[in-house]
Specification:
289 residues; dioxygenase activity; 26% strand; Probable phytanoyl-CoA dioxygenase isoform X1; alpha+beta; Jelly Rolls
Length: 289
């Protein structure tokens, strides 16, 4: 089954409308074109492309299909330009309205699919992982911000609208990735559509933690970088400590703080997630029961 996503266009003074909130409630996502403008994207790309931390802290995971997906992740937003995006009203404030309550920064990651070698991300729900982190409710979500043009050729995000209404699906291991039970996914895809979310730099997809999604390998000559910020409702504070933060108040900033920030990534206070395998081993042990 195939379909298209309902989309909204960002305005200079972006505000979440009732139609946007209803779309997220019904479909499990909110697609906003041009949430970050050209000037903001220029500064963010400059910061990431000149960030020594990409080489220092990034790590790869075998996708179970002969390639690796690369990540660069941290737990606290910080005070640099990446933190200003994560703390901005049009990003964090939007999720507070979509999740109907105060949120805090759960983690951020840069996902990198290199030309011809970038791996796939298997079908999964984010709450398929976060359930095991002591988060009792799926009152969580992620915003996927395209840093490059993302399309079918370089492995754009694919989502299953309305799949958040099914609840959490059992997850299993494939290669070094944990993904949704494929037998269950096969049945889901008989009744719900798959949508390829092709995006331009600055477009943003907010999606619920139970939305089923994946992305294919990058078989193009173009890289595919994306900036993903995850949030948890303050009321959903994890009941057990784990490798991502428990409730930490998020100090939001006006959208103007993005352009006011220098185009530099600062390591201070980020609490980088090193991907040393500890969290993966813990998760696969829990998934295996």
């Amino acid at each position: 089954m195939a379909s298209t996503l309902k989309e909204f266009q960002a305005s200079r003074q972006f505000k979440v409308t009732d139609d946007m909130k209803q779309c997220f409630k019904d479909e499990g996502y909110l697609l906003v074109r041009g949430l970050l403008d050209e000037q903001e994207m220029g500064k963010i790309l400059t910061a990431f492309e000149n960030d020594a931390g990409v080489a220092k802290y990034s790590f790869g995971r075998d996708d179970g299909h002969g390639r690796k997906s690369k990540y660069y992740a941290w737990n606290q937003p910080g005070n640099d330009i990446t933190g200003m995006v994560a703390r901005s009203e049009k990003v964090a404030g939007t999720f507070e309205q979509l999740l109907d309550g105060e949120v805090y920064h759960y983690h951020t990651k840069l996902t990198m699919k290199d030309p011809y070698t970038g791996g796939r991300f298997n079908w999964h729900q984010d709450y398929g992982y976060w359930y095991y982190n002591g988060c009792l409710f799926p009152d969580m979500g992620t915003v996927f911000i395209a840093l490059d043009r993302t399309d079918k050729e370089n492995g754009c995000l694919q989502v299953v609208p309305r799949s958040h209404k099914m609840g959490r699906i059992a997850h299993v291991t494939t290669g070094e990735e944990v993904g949704a039970d494929l037998e269950r996914v096969e049945q889901v895809l008989k009744v719900l559509p798959v949508v390829h979310v092709e995006m331009n730099p600055g477009d943003a997809l907010f999606f619920h933690s139970n939305v089923l999604h994946q992305s294919d390998q990058n078989n193009s000559a173009r890289r595919r970088w994306a900036y993903l910020i995850a949030y948890n409702r303050a009321s959903n504070n994890p009941v057990t400590p784990h490798h991502h933060p428990q409730y930490t108040p998020l100090h939001k900033v006006p959208d103007s703080a993005i352009l006011a920030a220098s185009p530099v990534v600062e390591e201070a206070g980020k609490d980088y997630f090193l991907g040393d395998g500890t969290e993966y081993k813990a998760l696969t042990t829990k998934v295996a029961g």
